[in-house]
Input
Amino acid sequence: MTDLERLRHSSAHVLATAILRIWPEAQFAAGPPVEGGFYYDVELRHRITPEDFPRIEAEMKAETKANHVFERVEVTRDEAIALAKEGRLAALGARPEPSKFKLDIVERIPEGETITLYRNGDFTDLCAGPHVMRTGNIGAFRLTHVASAYYKGDERNPQLQRIYGTAFKNKTQMDEHFAMLEEAKKRDHRKLGAEMGLFAMDPEYVGPGLPLWLPKGTAIVEELEKLAKETEFAAGYVRVRTPHLAREKMYQTSGHLPYYAESMFPAMELEDDGGARASSPHSEASSLGTSSEPEGRMPSEAGWKPALPIADRYYLKAMNCPHHHRIFAAEPHSYRDLPLRLAEYGCCYRYEQSGELFGLMRVRSLNMNDAHIYCTEEQFADEFRAVNEMYLKYFSIFGLGKYQMRFSTHDPEKLGQKFVDEPELWKKTEDMVRRVLVESGIHFVEVPNEAAFYGPKIDVQVWSAIGREFTIATNQVDFAVPRKFGLVYRDRDNVEKTPLCIHRAPLGTHERFIGFLIEHYAGNFPLWLAPEQVRIITIGDDPALADYAKAIHRELRASEVRTDIDLSNDPIKAKIADAETAKVHTMLVIGHRDLEAGNVSVRLHGKGNVGAKPRAEALAGILAAIRERRG
Ligand SMILES: [Zn+2]
Ligand SMILES: [Zn+2]
Output
């Protein structure tokens, strides 16, 4: 947890304290920090609305003013259960009803694990922490909205009220935050994306969360892919292509099934597997959970054939890694082949809950700037450093001055449960990652207990031009899954060894990254990314001007510059206003004087006229700015 997350999570305790002062019967479930703030889930007969916020905030204020210490108390499981039964957890004291959600949580904690309670004033909560020292450390807070959520996200469970708020060290920081949110509303990627014709959602025919990239949005997509391909080629990556789906066995091996099944689209069941079953030595593995013959199918034309006991199952891929692992496995490797860097803009599908879908930021189809680097332990530090340098190179291209790497490590107490049981490898890889980060002078925070199951991970947070934080990309070390897939290389000593794998996606997904860029640039993309880079505008519709304009148009198009031409007889002011509305980056305005001098008058979007230039000079300048990807 970062300092700010700790502060915000502590605010959730203060929120619960306040709610209980007004409604002592409230039953609390979970209250974690989230992006931009915190929430606490509460079950309460009274429906909390924003009208209640001032009253709740006044009680919160009293609690922060009292400056109570967050006091940590260790208890046994039996003690915690007894307290929950007396209604004393997430409560101000004993109550007639048990603290039912807390009771459920305690009962699921394995015997022998340390259980902690935290107290602030009269309020006691079951919580692993950490918190700030005192309630008075919360300098500024505000409740923002209420949503509904099922206990543990499962619709079979009771529906709870999710009370959201945010908190900061001081009021100045909070005021800046809300001013930034105002600006972000104007830059909302859903609003600008529709106005600029970048992407469309078609829930009725295509499905929710499955964006369609329109021609102008596709121009941005392809520029990003070009950037990635050039950068990765220079860094020694090779490109691969993989199908969008795979058999069940793939995801049983990778561990996605059953643990990640909820985030995957349901399986496609096939009766005829095209003979793959016969050649698969482990086909029994996929026959678990026998399903009956699907109903309502027509008998095949070939006549009767024996019904397969189970259908073969295929899944849409939620990640590209397993396919890349199979590419590694497709050929024998020796240490001389390593590092092997397999890159692909891979298209994945994730079944996000429909309530969670949000523009391009939360979608069900994702095009990921993915690559997997297979390397030896000796090569790891250099590879990892090179990946970080690639991130920094991208940040400078996009003008991202503020970023942070969040280094998530394991918790030695949870080896074998939350984290793969390889204490030596955890220590070794975490030390290597930490050393590289320190040596590269990269700004990072270390967050214990949040690593991936199979290795330490780095989430990269960036701040848009208006100061809003986004988690864009991840960079993970994996020392477990290559072993599960039986990946090996033959080392110098002729012994088979398992490679380490680095998962990295510096540009994240097209969906999330472009959503971010729309806000970052407020839709005013730099020349190299602009959907319409240049528009040639004639003053009037004189045929001589039109010929000159068409010649320039042809010349730019021949260099693959996305150029349009406006030869209409509309007033020049209207033509320019039209191009400004469309956020065309560069306008080349042509009148009789320009034609006679062999010039063009250059106008830049949002900046106005920058003067007449000889045609060749202006066009060379445009090509150079695109080639150099100038901001
Ligand atoms: Zn807590
Ligand atoms: Zn991966």
About this structure: The mean pLDDT is 91. The first helix runs from residue 3 to 22.
